[in-house]
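Predict the 3D structure for this chain.
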Amino acid sequence: MQSTLPHPVQEQAVISSSDLREVMGHFATGVAIITANDGDEPVGLTCQSVVSVSLDPPLIAFCPAKTSSSWPRLRNSGTVCINVLAGPQGPLCRQFSKSGTDKFAGVAHSPAGNGAPFIHEALAHVEATVEAEHDAGDHTIVVCRVTDLAIHSIDNGPLLFYRGGFGNFS
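Done. Predicted structure below.
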């Protein structure tokens, strides 16, 4: 049996950014902090758009906003650490989402194997090298090759972002 797709709509609907944000807000996502070492100083940003891309080779991707002041500094390092946040780490997530502040103030961290900061208390971390970048509207899709990874806790559930707020899954 052959199926046919409906004829494409000639007029494309106008989708507002607020409508897209509201609809996609119903899709729960995990939250991570992407870190790197920019010379002598650690740099990081909060990111909820992290995805496994390929198992062979091991690739992951994340999507920083083009307005991010932290992403250019992360990019320059060439290596990153994706820190998967635990349910109780909502305040840490908010701390890393602000511009113009010392994001690492009071944050226990140490260098991962690739030199990027591993945030203590994270559920897991993934070390990676930046392989490619793709323009995607107001964001950049960053594809990274995984070089090392570890699980640190199974006692807490992950921090989740859903409908504009944080929660956890246990």
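The chain has one domain: 17-164.
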